[in-house]
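Hi D.,

Good news: the full-assembly prediction came through. Inputs first.
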Amino acid sequence: MTSLTPGEWQAIWLTAKLAGLTTVILLILCAPLAWWLARSGSRLANPVAALVSLPLVLPPTVIGFYLLIVLGPQGAVGGTLEALGLQHLAFSFWGILIGSVIYSMPFTVQPLREAFAAIDTRLLDAAATLRAGALDRFFNLVLPLSRSGILTAVVITFAHTVGEFGVIAMLGGSLPGETRVVSIAIYDYTQALDYGAAHRLSAILLGFSFVTLLLFYAINQRVMSPLKPR
Amino acid sequence: MIEGHLTLSKGNFKLQSGAFCLPAQGISVLFGRSGCGKSTLLRAMAGLEAGTRGHLRFKGQRWQDAAWQLPVPQRDIGFVFQDAALFPHLSVRGNLAFAARRVPPGRADDANESIAATASRMGFSDLLDQSITTLSGGQRQRVAIGRALLSKPRLLCMDEPLSALDWRAKAELLALIDTLARETNIPVLYITHAPQEVERLADRVIFMQDGRIEHIDTLREALSRPDSPLFAEEGPVSVLQGQLGAPDADGLRNFGNPQLRFRLSLAPTASPCATRLRVLARDVSLATLQPQGLSILNQLPITISALHAGAPGRVTVVCRLADGQPLLAEITQYSCQLLGLVPGMSAFALVKSVALID
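Then the structure:
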């Protein structure tokens, strides 16, 4: 394989940064949300779950389009930022980061929700009688017991963000170092009929995705085995 | 004292405990059929049911007032669940440390020392570094009880802790729970639907039916009612208190006190500390004259204190032994009339078989 150009390295680094930040933000946002969805028994749980799951069924262009409107210079968010003397978020890294967070959210919420729902309530009761308060129980019981679900959420969220295209194309365009992630770069190369470069980047994404999933299944089996009853 | 009045609606089930008051000492057993609300009441008392209403005080401390609840972590209770509820991501030691580390600083001992001491007392020192997934049912309950004790509770709640165990593990754990409750002086609320566990452990019995407390009796009162719910399975039972003596010249062992003497044929290994003897009323016959030439070892003088109609055609006779303890005999109505039994009469009780509760 011929070596990568600085522009391609930049696209890979940008993709990793976008996927990494998206994963961290989503874990922090979705842990309490998934807990609420799994265990509150609230009547609002299903409508909220449906809302969060919309990116699973909507074309990415729809999400990208709405975000472009909202985050752009005339939008509710973008316009407010402009009025405050800041930049609007269309065609910026922060804009595609927000897009990625929304687009990948169901892939974080769902595994966490399932993991939290599977926790035996009596373990939580037992911990409470042993003087563990709510946060203590969450960090010392719920999170370790949900490690498989958390690992699933991290891997799927990261991989899904790496594979994102439509939302970024709509919302971010193709600004090198700002919004030109690998999938956009591949599209640009193909449009420019530079198939060699498109091959290089495509092969990298293919390899990355396969190795990630392979590691995921291997680790998941190891992580889970001590929790399985014999 | 533990006093209160708790209500709770859960689906179709309604808990309406009624006002109750029981001493915060010894072992109080909640007894009743499945679905009568024993577990729900215990969980409500522990603060584990969010929808609980009413009021509850433990040794003067407010635990529940209308919809207000003292949070569970602040109640200083230990709770042993039916399935042990050990934390599967932690080793046995990890489970115990979870409890020991959360004891308030003023009351905490050295965690490692108290874990080692508890494990040795509960008989699982060799299991400390095992994963809890490798433990047997009996071992899991030992660890669960040890974990509850390590949190230094002021009240120990046990929800059918033995129901999933085989008879041997059950017997061992019953003895252990009894000893622990006496030694640590921690009041225990214990749920069971097994009359044998009531007879073995109880200082008092809380009878429950249809989500309410029917009555709270001492064990002796509970066993003196011929229609006691404890007798539903095996018919009336008497539980006699006494001390077990050393084997005599005939190889038999005396049980009782200066006024009362049972002679028992026991394996020499029988526990010398056992203080309760269980007698089924249907194993007790009555004679108006002291019989001769019988193989029955125990022939005891009694006074008849009452007669109650039992199962169809049968009579439960409440007898008083020489030391005042009640003994129940179940005989046929026909025999009762033939012998002309009336309250106040002296007679002899022939006890065919007894069981030492240990």
